[in-house]
Design a protein that fits this description.
The chain is of the alpha/beta class. It has 6 helices and 5 strands, in the order βααβαβαβαβα. Strands 3-2-1-4-5 form a 5-stranded parallel β-sheet. α5 links the parallel β4 and β5 (107-108). α1 packs across α3 and α4 (61-70) packs parallel to α5 (90-102). The model has no long low-confidence stretch (mean pLDDT 93).
Amino acid sequence: MTRSIALVAHDALKDRMVDWASAHKSQLDGWKIYATGTTGGRIIDGTGLEVERLKSGPLGGDAQIGALIAEERLHGLIFFIDPLSAMPHDVDVKSLLRLAIHYDVPMAVSPSSATAVLDYLTKED
C-alpha cells in the first residue's frame, strides 16, 4: 500500500517546509504527496519530489485535504502553521485540524514534530 501525506505551510513558513522536505526527501520518495497550491509548487521546485498540487488553502485546498482525511485516504498531515500571523481563513484551518484530530491522523505543526511523525509513519511500512 502506498502511503500518503499532505504538506501545507503558511506563507512565512514555506521556506521552512521546503527545507524540511528536502532534508527528508529519501523518506518521502515513493509516497503519495499532496500539498496546497503554492506550497506544492515550492516543494516540487526545491526538492524534485512528485507532488499532487491542490488548490491554495484559502481557495479550497484545506477543504480538499480535509476530504482526503474524511475518506481515510491520508496517512499523515504536516501543517506548518505560523502562530504569529493572522489567518484570514482561520475557519478553514480549524476545520482541517478538527478533521485530523477526529479521524486520528498523525499530524505535525513544526519541523521537529514533522520529523517525529514521518519517522513513526515510515516505521509502519
